[in-house]
Here is the input.
Amino acid sequence: MNAKSEIKRIGILTGGGDCPGLNAVIRAVVKTAIFRYGLEVIGFHDGYLGMIEDKARALEAADVSGILDRGGTILGTSNRDNPFRFPAMVRGRKIFRDVSDQAIRNLRRRKIDVLIVVGGDGSLSIAQQLFQKGVPVVGIPKTIDNDLSATDVTFGFDTALEAAMEGIDRIHTTAESHHRVMVVEVMGRYAGWIALEAGLAGGGDVILIPEIPYDIEKVCEKVKERNRHGKRFSIVVVAEGARPKKGEVVVQRMVEDSTDPVRLGGIGFKVSSEIEKRTGLETRVTVLGHLQRGGSPSAFDRILATRFGTRAVELAMEEKFGRMVCLRGRHIRDVDLKKAVTKLRRVSPNGNLVQTARSIGITFGD
Amino acid sequence: MNAKSEIKRIGILTGGGDCPGLNAVIRAVVKTAIFRYGLEVIGFHDGYLGMIEDKARALEAADVSGILDRGGTILGTSNRDNPFRFPAMVRGRKIFRDVSDQAIRNLRRRKIDVLIVVGGDGSLSIAQQLFQKGVPVVGIPKTIDNDLSATDVTFGFDTALEAAMEGIDRIHTTAESHHRVMVVEVMGRYAGWIALEAGLAGGGDVILIPEIPYDIEKVCEKVKERNRHGKRFSIVVVAEGARPKKGEVVVQRMVEDSTDPVRLGGIGFKVSSEIEKRTGLETRVTVLGHLQRGGSPSAFDRILATRFGTRAVELAMEEKFGRMVCLRGRHIRDVDLKKAVTKLRRVSPNGNLVQTARSIGITFGD
Amino acid sequence: MNAKSEIKRIGILTGGGDCPGLNAVIRAVVKTAIFRYGLEVIGFHDGYLGMIEDKARALEAADVSGILDRGGTILGTSNRDNPFRFPAMVRGRKIFRDVSDQAIRNLRRRKIDVLIVVGGDGSLSIAQQLFQKGVPVVGIPKTIDNDLSATDVTFGFDTALEAAMEGIDRIHTTAESHHRVMVVEVMGRYAGWIALEAGLAGGGDVILIPEIPYDIEKVCEKVKERNRHGKRFSIVVVAEGARPKKGEVVVQRMVEDSTDPVRLGGIGFKVSSEIEKRTGLETRVTVLGHLQRGGSPSAFDRILATRFGTRAVELAMEEKFGRMVCLRGRHIRDVDLKKAVTKLRRVSPNGNLVQTARSIGITFGD
Amino acid sequence: MNAKSEIKRIGILTGGGDCPGLNAVIRAVVKTAIFRYGLEVIGFHDGYLGMIEDKARALEAADVSGILDRGGTILGTSNRDNPFRFPAMVRGRKIFRDVSDQAIRNLRRRKIDVLIVVGGDGSLSIAQQLFQKGVPVVGIPKTIDNDLSATDVTFGFDTALEAAMEGIDRIHTTAESHHRVMVVEVMGRYAGWIALEAGLAGGGDVILIPEIPYDIEKVCEKVKERNRHGKRFSIVVVAEGARPKKGEVVVQRMVEDSTDPVRLGGIGFKVSSEIEKRTGLETRVTVLGHLQRGGSPSAFDRILATRFGTRAVELAMEEKFGRMVCLRGRHIRDVDLKKAVTKLRRVSPNGNLVQTARSIGITFGD
Here is the structure.
């Protein structure tokens, strides 16, 4: 089918935080490579770490059987795997070294013709750096927060959204039975997509997102207004990156990197205790946290991940290196890897989603 | 906010088969109408039947509280509600009469300035006819099969797809444990979207859709080939409108209209018994049927339905009558109601989704 | 811990229809055998077939990692595996032979000291026959219909019940929106437990079970009475083994053995078409079928299966052969294998569950 | 049917924390009272508060239609409703008064012949006090933690367990992909049932419960031992009431009463930070919190709640006042209300469940 291609063997790794759909990508890459092009596939363990330490294994069709509906990644991932800034302990001191040449040597020794990198902005930036050093690379975007501007949407977001909505659905009955204000903190450090969409889907009354700084007085007003109209409960959906218009900014949890668990749920607790103090109404917090990352991927995510995986192998065969697959409307496209990781996709305060929310009476606290 | 508008009261009805997200539409229409524009809303019962027989009620904000996560429609629907061809029994014989003037009179007597119709091609065609008779109408598309060309996607499809995928997921373990061929019949009389996407998402091995007539020999070849490679089970996903390339066409179940339940699951049983006969392998059928229509809508469907509902009220206020809301890429748009219902959106046999499926080894029996 | 025991190696097989929780049993047997007693475990493939044909593999702790939440059985199962009546084709004719000596020889050659059989009445009867021929056997009951009198409940039932209830929940919204009678056929050939409990849990209006023959007139009366009281929909839950008081008995589907798929859903269709004919109300059927067997086991089933698996290994170590584990109230007990398979546990027409159903207005058609 | 009974009207209230199944109880009480006995039913709002302030409404069959699958309670509940110790502000100071006579007067003026109280130990103790003052009372136990000794199990627990297990299932994939220790804090202040059973069902490696004080060294040993055997992740399930053998006891969150949200998740964070410090392995915490109380009740809980509701009305008709319904094995029984609330049902450290957990390699840190 592609007789002239020089591509015989592709490598694949999954970097950054785990995300529902990674296994569907791996499966699609392996099946397309083997069934359609007769290639070999090598999977590196734990992101770039496997490339640096040369830990990898051949992936056959049997290895990806039964993983489509599984969360996580069978290849593993790691938060400490940057080959251009790899941590090492030298005489009791932590230093960072560039071990990219070693990583590239491992790639060549394994006769890998193209490397497919599935990752977020961090992992894709490294992919771009490797590409500049001559490594044939194809990228697949992964960001559960959906904050990459180069693609309309990535896999993982829909599953996370569904999990967040189910969480809010569950909390609704307690709110209503106990006449309470329930604060639900969801993911979204820089972009409020999950809070906005889960708030819309779960029937939230207040939604606080990083893109629209809030005034706690406005939030409390809404809660009190509902109370006056006989609605004795309210649901407040808070993105972990939400911040007040003025006053002290809460030090946020760093979802993937923090080692100080005390900070978990910072903003949710802050908002909750202020509402309780100012309104006198019973208030409770739930931090959805890792529940949003796990579980079986939704149909949408499994399909998108499969399309991305298949298209990435096609790009490899077409020798379109330094490119990243993406979704535009309903179409799979590809963009320059360099451009892909430069801009954050954030909620527009004047966009249709926010306007829709306002139209049905949701407050953003602004 | 819209001081000059003459619109004071809007009517709403839901027609055709039920669909997850209808309640989210109703809720968004009522909340937007009341909170944003200060309008009154009248809901007709059981589609156009309520308009013909003048059965309706005022909808307040309290009436739409707690319905966002509920399937079905609080307004009810009916399959026999065409005012231009309304059945009546006259001297023991069924005749059809045009009662549209009566329906329009009811609308006027209730001082309804705009009628919002949520429905599929049948209900929207009637809406277009009413518009031609001078009724100010705004349409919202509803088709669980996703086969309306005027919109990229409608609410209900995502939930149905998820239900179909979950059904296939469940059946997988039995297939694998018993080394069986499992045939799963899903919705899709004219378009194979649910079969195609649920097949992709659920890990189907064979997908049969109306757009690609199948050869049963090719289907059996795939099943036997898998067996030779040690895969002793296969999942065959069949759209109810799938048909063989040649030979007798199975009389299909008419999902919403049939009164002869014996026909249910026609094509699934036909495919199953032929596979069993030709391969000698144990084969079982599951017809998902109504399980795909019910249940709580997915986050995607709740959000899309909410956006459609809010936008429909905006169109009403802008006096853009004879229009239908739709989704283009990620944007809410509107199209001429006349054009909206003329063309079926079907799976392209050469499109990216089918190609992706073929790339990972799925067979369409062609 | 058990220094004197002669038991060094145990075998395990899973027979009969698949059932959520089988993998949890296998996992518990393997982990208890290895971690607590330092034994070896051999798993036979496809029920007794693996013993007859000597197809088996050693099971290590790693082999049972990650299977707790998976439906089905990693060992496979088979419907044609009776060593005392094993089918063979001799000169084009199917004959049955006793190959039990061959099966026992395989067991001995593999130095298996005890055989743990997980199965329903068929597989356990065979286990009892093997025990009489001198094979040290321990049984674990498996019946998704919950119709074994020797145990209060077995694993699989709770998951099937949950699936049946979710199916009814989904169908409710369509019933209500369309003002229809929805007939839902669930498992239960000889005992109506799933129909009764899913009907109670799902809000059914009529429940038809094998233990209480129904009069279709009484069923229709109920439906019409609801209609008169403004309840324009009804949910009728039918066990596949339900039968009318008089008149022609429908030939039932043989769930696990039938090769004639046309019979699937016999009674559901019969009941549905009679209701439609007699009441004139729109009626639809859904046959839940295999959806009830698959999917991830519920917490209850995972725990019960784990307790059964662990206790079976203890019985093996205590050399209590010819016994079967069971649940009595909240306690794990064991009974004589001989007694275990003789009596069917059926719904008592005067028991508390049926009385509770009647108290809240549910009709059994009697 | 019960011609001689003097009972004409029954009252019902739901007290304490909300719990899946409360609506199923209310529905069963109303339906049994109306359909079987022709009684009237009055529902008090917000627990005893409605009785004190005389806020109540008649409950008809239509009022309980469609609530079977809903979490929470349509009657509402309150944490501040003890008529024997009712808080009031007098000259800026909070005092407690006995307003039980007023509450009883309201009951009599409404001609309520029996009061059905659905509640935990707090609400049932009040019911017992009212009974001693001459109020005809029947109790229905409600405790999501399953820690009431007078009944084998109550509704709500199975749903909470399922939610906790699903949470652990979701977290598994992240644990495995990232090679992390994941700590999951679940409900259970005085009894470890949810932690124990969810740990068994979710495949936990360490389970910490109030009944078995833990040694953090033992916990870390287990985690490190798994690591040595190539299992680079561990799941630690912690009941909120777990406590170390020695050293400072963490001040626990008071689930329903705390107004200091900072304490939420105390023990989970403590355990997590100590594991990270001592093992050097990445550790994360998830506090399931209110997610365990909400959502649609499981089939088991809907059925048990329905049986309790129906039986409570029977007890009322039999004039067996001062009694509480309960479950013994598979049978509905009743016990003296006085005895019902005196003893806590806790996990036995030597019981079968704990032994089963140990047999498959789970550690309790003791």
